[in-house]
């Protein structure tokens, strides 16, 4: 356990988003080790009928692939005997991402508003659900409060004799006649879906609490049909599949040539009809990697006012959130040398014999696609191995780069100024200021408290009385990137913000000690210019402090280190 934990660490970015050139030796050695672990994993007889396709990508290119073909095939329909990146799986609920992206496109085009009620576009909606209060945004964010399913997961279809499990005898009169109610012989149409929804009661009031709903995305699919004038499947094809070059992605059952069809009961070939918007897509790891890369590079520019990777509501666990409709997981258990939480923005999917997940790791500039055909447990085991081993190794690579690119002694370029900063970096501290002299005045030292310099009151945002200051732990000054540039077009002049935090000594804390919003901008300014903003001009090894009216240059650096590792070229 770390002896010191710091408030600001992990709430704001710790480093600029790195680039990952293909063939990076440090990362390749870790990936080779992961490959061996995966081989050992699937050697288990439990996974003899299971295949998988895994691909890792940076913001710009695929970095690594790993595939496994089941040792035992489906005897009647063996499908693809050599699984690779072009092997086709059902991706189930990952289809919701495509439906939501289509909705964002329509919102950006002005054809819909995310804050319009669903009843505006589907006036035929009826029953006890509060349709006028359920907006498109609420539907896409799993906050509608409507039931999970319309025509699936009914026990009457799943067991031969429900009364044997203590349920009373019931009639099938009035039940749907499509999808599982028809033995999957007839897919549901929109009339079936709307009729089923008219009989439901709400789980929650709209926007009260998140709960997963497949039905919500069926409705969004119908909205897309109405505003685009096309069938939902055709719209997704020309709006998303075609522009992204996803040539193997489809709603129609592909040929068996590249199909992953595990032994036993599968969902291959079942037409989901009007449930396609919630789970009907067939795709490949190669296609999904293109899609993940598109998300990574466009998530904040798809529609005005929308950051697609942001959470919309907390979920049941303290580490989990729903997005629109991402499933977001934050954990502080992953990193070995830091208590900083790591965020995984994910979307999973599951159908009989198919399990899948896409994962965006925004702070690392990495994305992962995992498609599994066969035993569902393999999905979680692959994800645990790949993400934990990979990110622990990546952290070491990144902090070595941060140390070489940013750490050092910075002295004023103007020789008439006695101004010096000493910066260092490590996984446990982030990029910090060890000492700081400005105009011959000590602004900060690593044992500084607020009473050492009144400016610390501004940096910490504190209003505590002087009586408390003797009891205060030392203040730490940490630099956090904003991911913005002073010259955006040339991506030069990285803008960082100075945040102040207090040490935690590992002692038992009060409950409310964890209440920390960790604002990046303390509001401190001098003559109208922020005193907490710094600009790194990496090519010249210069750190500019606009509020302090000084430019400093790194001296005694190791030299020759290119800053390109932290420069995106998208």
From TrEMBL:
Residues 400-555 form the Beta-lactamase-like ARB-00930-like C-terminal domain. Residues 76-373 form the Beta-lactamase-related domain. Belongs to the beta-lactamase family. Residues 1-16 form the signal peptide. InterPro entries: ARB_00930-like_C, Beta-lactam-related, Beta-lactam/transpept-like, Beta-lactamase-like_AB/R. Keywords: Signal. It comes from the Eukaryota. This is Putative FLP FmtA-like protein, betalactamase. PANTHER family: BETA-LACTAMASE-LIKE 1-RELATED (PTHR22935:SF95), PENICILLIN-BINDING PROTEIN (PTHR22935). The keyword Signal applies. The keyword Signal applies.
């Amino acid at each position: 356990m770390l002896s010191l934990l710091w408030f600001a660490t992990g709430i704001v970015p710790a480093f600029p988003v790195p680039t990952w050139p293909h063939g990076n030796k440090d990362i390749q050695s870790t990936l080779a080790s992961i490959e061996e672990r995966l081989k050992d994993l699937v050697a288990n007889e439990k996974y003899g009928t299971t295949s998988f396709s895994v691909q890792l990508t940076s913001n710009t290119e695929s970095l690594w692939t790993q595939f496994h073909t089941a040792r035992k095939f489906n005897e009647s329909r063996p499908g693809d005997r050599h699984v690779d990146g072009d092997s086709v799986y059902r991706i189930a609920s990952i289809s919701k991402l495509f439906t939501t992206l289509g909705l964002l496109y329509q919102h950006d085009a002005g054809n819909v508003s995310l804050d319009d009620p669903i009843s505006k576009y589907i006036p035929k909606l009826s029953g006890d659900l509060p349709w006028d209060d359920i907006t498109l945004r609420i539907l896409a964010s799993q906050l509608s409060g409507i039931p999970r399913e319309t025509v699936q997961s009914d026990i009457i279809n799943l067991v031969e004799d429900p009364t044997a499990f203590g349920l009373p005898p019931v009639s099938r009169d009035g039940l749907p006649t499509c999808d599982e109610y028809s033995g999957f012989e007839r897919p549901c149409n929109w009339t079936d879906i709307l009729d089923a929804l008219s009989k439901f009661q709400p789980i929650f009031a709209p926007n009260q609490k998140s709960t997963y709903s497949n039905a919500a995305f069926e409705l969004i699919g119908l909205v897309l049909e109405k505003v685009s004038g096309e069938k939902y499947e055709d719209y997704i094809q020309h709006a998303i599949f075609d522009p992204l070059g996803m040539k193997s992605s489809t709603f129609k059952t592909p040929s068996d040539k590249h199909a992953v069809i595990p032994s036993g009961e599968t969902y291959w070939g079942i037409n989901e009809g009007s449930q396609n918007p919630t789970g009907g897509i067939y795709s490949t790891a190669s296609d999904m990697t293109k899609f993940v890369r598109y998300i990574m590079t466009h998530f904040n520019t798809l529609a005005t006012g929308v950051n697609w990777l942001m959470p919309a509501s907390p979920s049941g666990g303290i580490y989990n959130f729903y997005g629109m409709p991402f499933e977001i997981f934050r954990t502080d258990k992953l990193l070995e040398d830091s208590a900083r939480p790591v965020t995984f923005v994910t979307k999973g999917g599951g159908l009989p014999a198919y399990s899948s997940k896409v994962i965006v790791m925004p702070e690392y500039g990495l994305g992962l696609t995992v498609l599994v055909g066969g035993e569902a447990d393999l999905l979680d085991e692959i994800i645990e191995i790949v993400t934990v081993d990979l990110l622990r190794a990546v952290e070491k690579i990144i902090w070595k780069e941060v140390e070489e690119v940013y750490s050092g002694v910075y002295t004023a370029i103007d020789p008439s100024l006695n101004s010096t900063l000493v910066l260092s970096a490590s996984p446990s501290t982030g990029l910090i200021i060890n000492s700081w002299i400005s105009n011959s005045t000590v602004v900060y030292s690593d044992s500084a408290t607020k009473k050492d310099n009144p400016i610390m009151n501004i940096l910490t945002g504190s209003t505590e009385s002087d009586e408390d200051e003797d009891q205060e732990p030392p203040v730490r000054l940490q630099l956090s990137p904003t991911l913005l540039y002073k010259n955006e077009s040339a991506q030069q002049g990285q803008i960082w913000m100075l945040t102040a935090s207090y040490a935690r000594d590992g002692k038992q804390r009060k409950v409310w000690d964890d209440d920390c919003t960790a604002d990046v901008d303390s509001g401190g300014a001098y003559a109208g210019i922020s005193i907490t903003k710094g600009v790194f001009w990496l090519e010249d090894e210069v750190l500019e402090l606009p509020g302090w009216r000084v430019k400093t240059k790194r001296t005694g650096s190791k030299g020759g280190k290119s800053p390109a590792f932290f420069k995106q070229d998208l």
